[in-house]
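## retry 2 of 3
previous attempt timed out at serialization; input unchanged, resubmitting
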Amino acid sequence: MTHQDNIINLTESSVADLCAEQRPKKYAHKKLLAIEAAAKVFADKGFHGATTHDIAAQMGIQQGSLYYYFKSKEQALQEVCEYGFDVYVERMKKICAKDQPFEAKMMAIITSHLTSYSHKDSAMKVHNEQRLYLPIERRSRIKELGTSYRRLLEATLIEGIKVGVLRADVDTHFIAYSIIGICNSWGANLIRDESLNLFETIEQCSDLILYGTLSRQSK
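## retry succeeded, writing output
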């Protein structure tokens, strides 16, 4: 074999290795596009009104090609819900990692929670409204993410106790669930009632959670 042949073989090998390296990245990018397309369709038509043909059309591909990304409409809903909640938890992690006063951190958490109900955030909108259409066996990852979110919130409340902003005897587990419940309830109201102002709702929920209903003079 000549030196030139060795160079050609080496070049062909390098190209093959590069192509092999790029394939997973290309698939991951396409998979994200598939999830975003499914989120848009489910947000617009609902799980029962949507079809795999609708998702494929949103992606600009043939229905049969959608099988490379989702084996069923149910799997598509599962992955959309997981993606939406995963992004939501990642935002929570960033908020909790910041060095800022307790009140500012709580305001950021409440703001993030309520704005997740925005119609522009299709994946989280689908999670909030349609995850219960998934069978229980498909909700395990969503449950794990929910637990992670609650624990981050509890850790923030514990920080509040340590710095003396919260009473030492508060039940952080109970308070965390209560905050999530308030935000979920008002988030659902924001979706149902278009007359509600997002920022006013954030302000009112924050005031209730941080300061309660007692007058300032009675504290």
